[in-house]
Specification:
With 128 residues, the chain is α+β, with helices and mostly antiparallel strands. Helix content is 29%, strand content 38%. It has a five-stranded mixed sheet.
Amino acid sequence: MISGRDPLSPEEQIRTAIKEMVEGAEERRLEPFKKHLSEQLEDQNGLGKKDILQRLRVLFLRHPEIHLSILSLDMTGSGNQVRKVQMELLMSSTSIPQNRGIYDFTFRQEDGDWNLWYMDWGQGYGLE
């Protein structure tokens, strides 16, 4: 952290994590996901971090280009442990949006970092 700056709020930390993961997806890089996904991550189907990273690898291989645009990002919760996030996302493998998804996330503070702990892909892209 840069000296003299206030620490980021939980909401700012979570928004930064999401932004890094979106940019990582567009650049087809797993590193931001490895950094921000909890080791205890689980999705609505019971898949964990290793499985989610493998799905991302496949998605990156299937699509030489990935374009994402966050339409909305709504966060609820207070305190120091958990925040719920709903994100509406446009996505495409071309510059013209082809799919829209709404995703529900739970971020949890783990050792001072806010990590993605639970995710519901809903009818989101990439699950077939």
